[in-house]
Design goal:
The chain is an alpha+beta fold. It has a single domain, classed as Protein Transport Mog1p, Chain A (3-Layer(aba) Sandwich), CATH 3.40.1000. Helices cover about 15% and strands about 45% of the residues. The protein is built from 3 helices and 11 strands, in the order H-E-E-E-E-E-H-E-E-E-E-H-E-E. Strands 3-4-5-9-8-7-6 form a 7-stranded antiparallel β-sheet. A hairpin with a 2-residue loop joins strand 6 and strand 7. The N and C termini lie far apart (about 65 Å).
Length: about 180
């Protein structure tokens, strides 16, 4: 009897070891734009430029991590003095829209969308909000190599967005915008 129990425990331990390792999620905060979020993996920052069709080029910072063929990306765009809400239309361009809903994070309103990418490029979910003069786009893309388009990590990432200086975890990593 004891041998069977030990054999069963060993089989469970072996099966658990064979499962892919899940990356630990960690908190990140950006004080300047006033938001925080959670993501797995190591987040890297890069400078970018966002070209607005109605308002021209805008300075942007992209915070990105990739884990298990899933890309987690936060794009922060300086949109001081904005005149339009075009970004949600740009996210949808040339993609099969699966969902497009109004969304709310605290007092900020925005859009939350899910699209299939062209040429079987995967599935992407985004939440797009304005806060303190910045456009903040939370985007997670499940790449075809992963293929788990029903993953709860999509919503977990996009829905982790919070506004306000005190909302980040106490051990959150402070991310700086690249000027």
């Amino acid at each position: 009897m004891r041998g069977r129990i030990l054999g069963g425990l060993a089989a469970i331990a072996f099966a658990m070891a064979a499962l892919p390792a899940q990356a630990a999620w960690h908190g990140y905060v950006n004080i300047e734009a006033g938001f925080s979020y959670n993501a797995p993996g190591d987040v890297k920052a890069e400078k970018s430029t966002y070209t607005s069709t109605s308002e021209g080029p805008r300075s942007a910072t992209i915070f990105r991590s990739v884990e298990d063929d899933v890309e987690y990306k936060v794009t922060v765009i300086n949109f001081f003095g904005r005149k339009s809400d075009e970004p949600s239309a740009l996210f949808q361009a040339n993609k099969k829209v699966l969902t497009d809903n109004e969304a709310r994070v605290e007092a900020s309103y925005g859009r939350k969308m899910t699209v299939d990418l062209p040429n079987n490029g995967g599935r992407s979910m985004a939440g797009i909000f304005f806060n303190q003069g910045y456009l903040i786009e939370m985007q997670v893309t499940i790449l075809p190599a992963n293929g788990d388009y029903g993953s709860s990590d999509m919503g977990r990432f996009v829905d982790s967005l919070a506004f306000g200086a005190g909302r980040g975890e106490t051990d959150a990593t402070d991310l700086k915008l690249i000027k």
